[in-house]
Amino acid sequence: MESTSPKQLLALGALGFCLLWGVSFFNGTLENMDAVIKQGFFPGGRSLHSVYTGNSLLDARLTYLTAFYEPLSNALSAGPRLLFFDLNFMLSCTNAWVFIESRRRGVRNMALRHPVPFMVLWNAMGAAFVQPFYFYFITQSKAAPGTPFLIVAICLISIALMLPRHGLVSKKDAKNPDADRPWIVASFIMARTIAAAVHIFTIVHSLNPIDPDLTLTRLFIPSMGKVNSFSASAHNSTLASAGLSPKGRVLLEGFYLFTQFDLIVIALSCIVFTHYLLSNLPKIGTKMISGKPRPAGMGELAYIALGTVVFGPGAAGSWALALRESRLRERTAPRKIQ
Questions:
Q1: Which residues of 230-268 are buried (b: 16+ CB within 10 A; e: fewer)?
Q2: In the chain, how many domains are there?
Q3: Quick one: which H or E segment has residue 256?
């Protein structure tokens, strides 16, 4: 019995939908966000910008995103902003993963070949809901482990390093299809390094003994009671001193809970997805990859899970995929005739 399977990704996608949208519906977060959009300003008086392109339909969708992202990214609360920062770098790593997989030889599914619309979708609808399903479809792809034509190493501002032979993009070479292997592995290593640095930065700052808004439990353990709690506490006093009204705090806590559930489900999805790909190495032509007889087992699953806790899902998953890429390019050495 396999320790990880694509069906687990389907279950995580369903769980993500329930935790993100089900909880937000029942605890009043969606209703609070609708009230902000209807009024045109946030609790406390900050205006909500609602005109971006001049197209009313598109602007309406962008206004919803602004209403969600603004409270999480402003300076009024340190904890949600720090976790949101970490989450964005983790998603940057997963964006790089799906870009690389989209350029495999033999990928015929249009959705897998063109992942950008789905990246927009999981940023708009919640990655914990959309991304596990997309990971599932990648695991079902029968594409050969060929040479990706375009490898995009996406950081926070989605910078592509595209200098042939000197960056992370290299040309296809029919005579030497593994010539770009170092660059592909290097892209995973770069993503791993950046994501790990950001996650460690987040962990270090969460060890602040003074600010109750910056603790490990505040950052990573969801607390559904805070969304509707108006009780005076040290945490409430901290947010009030930062300029958040009671209604503003409730709105922030609802969005923050959404983000925490997002992070947890994505982390689990990354563990399942990367370990499954590492465990199921396909064929190259008529030859089996030499790594096939040594599939990833429980030991490597434990390493990925431990790396997820210490260095973050983006870093741990990038390490696993770099290892997989190395094994994909290994060919069975021809036997010598005695």
A1: eeeeebbebbeeeebeeebbbbbbbbbbbbbbbbbbbbb
A2: 1
A3: helix 246-279
Q: Which residue in 97, 104, 145 sits closest to 122, CA to CA?
A: 97
270 within some domain: yes
* Whole-number Å distance between alpha carbons of 160 and 310: 27
Contact 122, 269 (CB under 8 A): no
In a domain, 337, yes or no: no
CB-based burial label for 216 (10 Å; 0-12, 13-18, 19+): exposed
Rounded distance, CA 50 to CA 41, Å? 10
Round to whole Å and give the CA distance between 267 and 144: 27
Integer-rounded Cα Rg, in Å, for the chain is 22
Residues 6+ apart with CB under 8 A from 119: 95, 98
Both structure tokens of 279: 């465990």
- Residue spans of beta strands (DSSP E) within the chain: 283-284, 287-288
- Give, as one character, the DSSP assignment of residue 166: T
| 76 located within any domain | yes
AA letter at 115: P
18 in a domain, yes or no?
Answer: yes
Give the structural domain span for 270. Answer: 6-328
Task: pLDDT tens for the chain, 338 residues: list them.
Answer: 467 889 999 999 999 999 999 999 998 999 999 999 999 988 888 898 888 888 888 888 889 999 999 999 888 888 899 999 999 999 989 988 888 887 765 666 777 878 888 888 888 888 999 999 999 988 887 654 443 333 333 333 233 333 333 333 344 444 555 555 667 788 888 888 999 999 999 999 888 777 888 888 889 999 887 776 543 344 454 444 455 677 888 899 999 999 999 999 999 999 999 999 988 876 544 344 444 444 557 888 999 999 999 999 999 999 999 888 888 766 433 444 44
- CB-based burial label for 120 (10 Å; 0-12, 13-18, 19+): exposed
With b meaning 16 or more CB within 10 Å and e meaning fewer, what string describes 33-56? beebbeeeebbeeeeeeeeeeeee
